[in-house]
Amino acid sequence: MKKTFFILLFFISSCGYQPIYVNKSSEIYEFKKIVLSGDNYINNKIVNILSIKENNEINDKNILHISSSFSTEEISKNSKGQVEIYKSTINVNLQIKDINNQIIQKRNFAKEFRYNNKQNKFNLAQYQSSIKDDLINKIVSDTIIFLNSE
């Protein structure tokens, strides 16, 4: 058992494996202009987590457009008409445009989560808020891969 653990540890450490978030805090994405539309909470959270900065002084940088939306739907109701299952969905559209307003890259990110209703509405609201944050974090991890692939 110990042998296989050390062999596995040797291969993982020597193959150049590096988690995605290792250099996340030190990496700053700069754009000439950032245009946000849609859900302000989602947009601000994405910009803050990714450390996206706006720099007007550099002429050769691109323009970033972020458009987002959040929706909660009732999926299933019981015989009394009470909601049993909800679905929360976040859609984020990222576009990188050059100075001439031509699209260089674009990508749509969509994440959804289904969950059961709760008796206590305060707990339901807190749970929906934590689901929204979790979905945003999943989209941010996909966005990191997208921005690093350009």
Characterization of the model:
By secondary structure, the protein is α/β, with parallel strands linked by helices. It has one domain: Double Stranded RNA Binding Domain. The chain is 35% helix and 37% strand. It has three helices and six strands, in the order H-E-E-H-E-E-E-E-H. The strands form two sheets. Strands 2-4-5-6 form a four-stranded mixed sheet, with helices on one face. A two-stranded parallel sheet has the order 1-3. It is flat.
Task: Name some characteristics of this structure.
single chain, 150 residues, alpha/beta, Double Stranded RNA Binding Domain, 4-stranded mixed sheet, 3 helices, flat
Condensed summary:
With 150 residues, the chain is an alpha/beta fold. It has helices at residues 2-14, 40-50, 121-148, and strands spanning 29-31, 33-38, 52-54, 63-77, 83-97, 103-116.
